[in-house]
Inverse folding.
């Protein structure tokens, strides 16, 4: 996929998510961009650990790659859960198509996390950050709508079934990953 079509897919996803995801899946493209989006979302999320660490900037050398790999791992794991639970509700899709849809749906979440991270770590007062709640709320709702539309397009099921599939997948992923994290990272 050329750089122009990558940028075109990223730009059109914001206002035509169904057609963009359908076109990417039909052409077998967009998987690398989707994985990069998920990895970047993991890196932005891991910035909280980098900047809050006692080591300072030296912590970036291991937290940022760990965040990228964590974002990719969560994308692959969540795609597996969405496919399996989506089958229970009548959806049929390949794993690569679901990963493409989920990864493209990471774009607005990436913007939301970047805005929130930049506002929190720029030295702004917490009350000033809290005054932007309408912007964050609208972006949160729009991000969920884009996630719902992209996964609904790939699975081929309705909005209610897709919402149920995503809810079950997120709950299972959250509890399983938190249990694994508790086993490996909790003090003995």
């Amino acid at each position: 996929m050329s750089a122009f079509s990558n940028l075109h897919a990223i730009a059109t996803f914001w206002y035509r998510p169904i057609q963009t995801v359908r076109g990417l899946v039909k052409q077998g493209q967009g998987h690398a961009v989707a994985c990069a989006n998920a990895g970047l979302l993991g890196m932005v999320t891991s910035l909280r650990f980098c900047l809050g660490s006692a080591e300072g900037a030296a912590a970036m050398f291991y937290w940022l790659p760990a965040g990228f790999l964590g974002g990719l791992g969560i994308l692959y794991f969540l795609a597996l859960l969405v496919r399996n639970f989506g089958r229970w509700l009548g959806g049929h899709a390949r794993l690569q198509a679901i990963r493409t849809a989920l990864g493209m749906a990471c774009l607005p979440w990436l913007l939301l996390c970047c805005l929130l991270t930049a506002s929190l770590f720029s030295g702004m007062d917490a009350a000033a950050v809290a005054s932007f709640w309408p912007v964050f709320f609208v972006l949160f709702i729009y991000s969920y709508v884009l996630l719902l539309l992209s996964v609904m397009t790939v699975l081929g099921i309705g909005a209610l079934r897709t919402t149920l599939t995503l809810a079950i997948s997120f709950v299972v992923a959250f509890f399983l990953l938190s249990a694994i994290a508790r086993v490996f990272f909790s003090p003995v």
Q: What stands out?
A: The longest helix spans residues 60-88.
